[in-house]
Amino acid sequence: MPQMSNLLDRTPLTHVDVAGTTIPKGVPVVLALASANRDPKRFRDPDRFDPTRRDNQHLGFGSGVHICYGAPLARVEAQIALGALLPHLTTATLVEDPPPYRHSAVLRGPRHLPIELAPSP
Fold first, then answer.
1. What gap in Å lies between CA 87 and CA 49, rounded to an integer?
2. What is the DSSP pairing of strand 21-23 with strand 16-18?
3. Beta bridge pairs of residue 93
4. Which contacts of 6-15 are long-range, i.e. CB under 8 A and separated by 24 or more positions?
5. For residue 33, what is the DSSP state?
6. What is the pLDDT of residues 7-28, one digit of tens each?
7. C-alpha span between 68 and 3 (Å, rounded)
8. pLDDT reading at 87 higher than 80
9. pLDDT surpassing 80 at residue 44
10. What percent of the chain has pLDDT over 90?
11. What is the rounded CA–CA span in Å between residue 6 and residue 31?
């Protein structure tokens, strides 16, 4: 899933070259962070919800000095919840695929995420 915070503004203190483009000193830049998780050069079929996706090099919890301190707890909680739930299910599918997303420059994420669960026999 994409991260919820979508925009970050920065002003370079010196001229900076990014991927062949020069950003002059003092010129404000707005970064769309969620686009990093949707780069088709980096993620195959980035707009498709795929809970089995193995490549987890996303920025959903931030990175480096800006990493979310709650990320390890969130991962453990998800692992425990899914570990308790999944053995009792045969399938879990999205009711709407892809789910409907908010149209906002500030927040990004699904408006709702209904999932259809089928119990094990």
1. 21
2. antiparallel
3. 116
4. 6/32, 6/33, 6/34, 6/104, 6/105, 6/106, 6/107, 6/108, 7/31, 7/32, 7/33, 7/105, 7/106, 8/33
5. G
6. 788 999 999 999 899 999 999 9
7. 12
8. yes
9. yes
10. 30
11. 8
